[in-house]
Amino acid sequence: MIDPDRLALEFQNLLIIESPSKKEGKLAYYIADIFEALGYKCFFDRSAENTGSEVGNLIVKIPGTVPSSPIFFCAHLDTVGPCENPKIIFDKGIYRSDGRTILGADDKSGIAILIEIAKVLKENIFPHPPIEFIFTTCEEIGLLGAKYLDYNLIDANEGFVLDSENPSEVINAAPSSYQFKIEIKGKSAHAGLEPEKGINAIHILSQILADLPFGRIDEETTMNVGIIKGGNYINIVPDYAEAKGEIRSHKEEKLLELQNLFQNQFEKIISSYPVKDKNLPSGKIRFEKIFKAFNIPLDDPICKVVQKAGEKVGLNIVFKRKEGGSDANIFNENGLKCLILGTGMQKVHTTEEFIALKDLIITANLVLEIIKLKSEMV
Ligand SMILES: [Zn+2]
Which of 13, 16, 201, 215 could form a disulfide linkage to 241, CB 3.0–4.6 angstroms apart? Predict the structure, then answer.
């Protein structure tokens, strides 16, 4: 059974190992040593060549004791900053940092839970399916570990990502995200002496943006322009301007609609300018998919399993959608159906991050119940 003291101790050990994105090596080897000592096979994939991390993703295989289909659990190795020389404070059942750094419960709470699960399985008290743990790198800088994961190493085709907040809230849907970049080329000229010879790229860009909708487009779609650049001198007509932003939606067709709107607005404004010199003004607009939406229906067996496991540990599970991306978007896109479990981590990505030990324990129990229920399903 879950040993709360053993879990707490391991969690504290993990918190003091720094693991910013791309520097997950020390943590990854520490974890691999634990699993190898338990007798489980560990593999590092070759994703480091593409992610720029010190290590690949770590995959751990725990052989099943019953012939049911394999499942995976995932946690990410990296944390955001600041994370140098962390000091952990445990008071009234709550873990926090000393206020200088993040705590790193995102996602070391997930890692600690999976280590505890492996130790419980080793005790061989109950039957379980084959289990795979995936520890990804560079999640916080664009889901890179998951994007470059060697999917050939994974046998499971469904599982759970431990990377959300409340243990009773399970994430079954998340949006698609696209980033855009608009570039406008104009023509420079002295702003005071001969402005009529210039084409003002900033002016054109601002006209394109002015009539586009930004903010909350509807209840499942948002759009933001976040960066704008252009011009070097106050007295020169600027010949270049660019803007970058993002669109998120739970519906792919809404994203296409907005992309079309963007394109039309771009063409309308550009073509309204008389062509001056060498086809100027000109410009381009580029959309890049960052992650794809997923939506696991509530009647899917994986949702039923987590609901039932919740009942066994006294959690009233509610399914929610998330507005951000995570490894789960990339896994679902690659055919690994998965939900996101909360571990109790709160105020993540801030120096006020905290987690209650009781939430860590309850999530470990939830994961154990999921494994028990899965072992009964062939
Ligand atoms: Zn996270």
Answer: 201
- Comparing CA positions, the residue from 368, 348, 330 lying closest to residue 109 is 348
pTM, full prediction: 0.89
d(CA 348, CA 374): 31
Residue 92 predicted with pLDDT over 80: yes
- Considering the chain, what percentage of its residues have pLDDT values greater than 90? 95
Give residue 68's domain range. Answer: 4-174+293-375
How far, in Å, from the CA of 190 to the mean position of ligand 1? 50
Is 78 catalytic? The answer is yes
364 has pLDDT over 90: yes
Could you tell me if 193 and 339 lie in one domain? Answer: no
109 shares a domain with 52: yes
Residue 170 has pLDDT above 80, yes or no: yes
**How many structural domains is the chain composed of?**
2
Q: Are 3 and 122 in contact (CB under 8 A)?
A: no
Residues 303 and 155 placed together within one structural domain of the fold: yes
User: Residue 378 has what pLDDT?
Assistant: 59
Give DSSP secondary structure letters for 307-373. Answer: HHHHHHTT---EEEE-SS--HHHHHHHTT-EEEEEE-S-BSTTSTT-EEEHHHHHHHHHHHHHHHHH
Tell whether 159 and 214 lie within a shared domain: no
Q: Are residues 155 and 304 in the same domain?
A: yes
CA of 258 to the centre of ligand 1 (A): 29
pLDDT tier at 124 (50, 70, 90 boundaries)? confident
User: Catalytic one among 78, 165, 183, 239?
Assistant: 78
Q: In this structure, what token pair is assigned to residue 347? A: 């105020």
- Pick from 253, 270, 288: which residue ends a domain? 288
